[in-house]
Amino acid sequence: MELRIGVIGCGAIGQDHALRIHRKLSGARIVALNDINLAATHAFNDTSRLDAKVYENYQDLINASDVDALLLASWGPAHADQLLACIAAGKPVFCEKPMTTSAESGLRVVEAEVQAGKKLVQVGFMRRFDAGYRALKKTLNAGTIGDALMVHCAHRNPSVPEMYVGDMCITDTFVHEIDVLRWLLDDDYVSAQVVEGRKSRNAHAGLHDPVMVLLETSKGIRIDTEIFVSCRFGYDIQCQVVGEIGAAFLPEPASVALRLEGRASTAIQTDWKQRFIDAYDVELQEWIDATQRGQVNGPTAWDGYFASATAEACVEARHSKAIVPIRLAERPAFYSK
Ligand SMILES: NC(=O)C1=CN([C@@H]2O[C@H](COP(=O)(O)OP(=O)(O)OC[C@H]3O[C@@H](n4cnc5c(N)ncnc54)[C@H](O)[C@@H]3O)[C@@H](O)[C@H]2O)C=CC1
Ligand SMILES: O=C1[C@@H](O)[C@H](O)[C@@H](O)[C@H](O)[C@H]1O
Question: DSSP characters for 176-236?
């Protein structure tokens, strides 16, 4: 039976996800849409020929009897209340990152799910579904480079809009590394430090760019990440794990090598949507399949809470210029691995 999905938040990624479900993936259908921008949602419904029902408020959409599961792609601050409504209705929900914008609201989602007694929430950390990260994890698990000691990462965007300000480099951008490195290393973080360097002339007024985040894990692994969102040259995601006897690198996206006019070159991607396009497909297809089996197979509400709590500690570390311990609530047995 087809999974009937309602989408809440029909902006950039909400539309992308709705279209990939409509055109590319199997086992599901978009039957309902909601967004605070109703006119744009009607226009999207018409131009994409989804033929979905447009709801004026998200509660009615969540409670509709012909909606089996929800896809949340509204702005981060709206996620917590919308997730709590999905859990109250007992419906599975895929929620884009960040799950919540504070540790406190993340914990409320975790507690509501535990109370409901059934895992319903999956968080949109798509890098866990990327073929390159999966290959890297396989290499680490095989012990090929010995135990991991250090990780060097970079998260570079060519530019960001004027509305991207303040600590979004951590809460919106670095949150991907927070999740994927914890999954990759199978380890939790114990402390965070954030260092600001020289500001790039290309960073807009509301932004100090780049910044560096240093994390330490419970096994003592040291992670450094450069976050540089006005780097100009491309959307460049780097991850190098250094082990006792070798180093393992995240594969670069495939690109034809050119020898031309006295130069050898390969292209660097410039658009985050293209860099992880296959990962988004795999992520949502696996979510549809698992939901139909009544399971959650991807990042859970606990992972979402963990990421929000770590991001919060990083923000505190940035402003205090101190090394901040990462303290979490006790993990409920409900989320045991
Ligand atoms: N996994 C990934 O790589 C990516 C994830 N995201 C995440 O997806 C979410 C949406 O991001 P974008 O699509 O880029 O933003 P966007 O601004 O293009 O779209 C957000 C939409 O949500 C709507 N909205 C806001 N509050 C709402 C509410 N209370 N109820 C219903 N609709 C509401 C807005 O009107 C807008 O249409 C964010 O949480 C963002 O961090 C965004 C880009 C990439
Ligand atoms: O989630 C995303 C954006 O919201 C964020 O702004 C970008 O920095 C990330 O690379 C992208 O994956």
Answer: HHHHHHHHHHT--EEEEEEEE-PPPTTS-TT----EEEEEEETT--EEEEEEETT-SS--E
